[in-house]
Amino acid sequence: RAPLLGKVVTTTEASRFMHAMAALLDNGVSMVSALDITRRATSNPVIAREIDRIGSRVRLGERLGDTLARSRIFPPLAGQLAAVGERSGSLAKMLRHGGKVMEEQAQREVKNLMVVATPALTILLGVMVGGVVLSLLSAIMSVNDLAF
User: Fold this and answer.
1) Fewer CB within 10 Å, N- or C-terminus of the chain?
2) Rg (Cα) of the chain, in Å, rounded?
3) pLDDT tens-place string over residues 80-99
4) pLDDT over 70 (residue 58)
């Protein structure tokens, strides 16, 4: 929910989730077990709760793509790609492709964030340096006032 970083974190976590799921499914791990493993592997508690919610819905018989599409955390593209993969029988391949797409999107978002952050940090540092200079000058001037 953070204004600038929230989307970057969400996209990065979605990419990691999709890569992990693709690797596990490629190696013969069942869907429910793969969801449980990816939930335990994530360090973000919000993402872990969402994966747990998705896992409970999949255990009840819902499709992964449908559950991801209704997710408030994961981007809609994740659900769409998972749904296409489920329908075509190549879920792992589509998840891997989705992970690559999300990774590229996260890199673009980081670049955009840096474009915005660089001037803002430059201005902030200028204001801080200006404050230090003004405080030093005021101290020097007050010493002169004491001499008179």
Assistant:
1) C
2) 24
3) 999 999 999 899 999 999 99
4) yes
Kindly give, in sequence order, each residue whose CB lies less than 8 Å from that of residue 58, ignoring residues fewer than 6 positions away.
31, 32, 35, 64, 67
- Dist CA 107 CA 101 (whole Å): 10
3-34 tens-digit pLDDT: 778 888 888 999 999 999 999 999 999 999 99
User: Of 105, 60, 101, 59, which Cα lies nearest the Cα of 80?
Assistant: 101
* Tens-digit pLDDT profile for residues 114-137: 888 899 999 999 999 999 999 998
Assign residue 2 a region (left: φ > 0; alpha: ψ between -120 and 50; beta: otherwise). beta
Q: Cα separations (Å) of 90 from 52, 87, 98, 146?
A: 23, 8, 12, 82
Within 13 A of 72's CA, how many CA atoms are on the CB side? 5
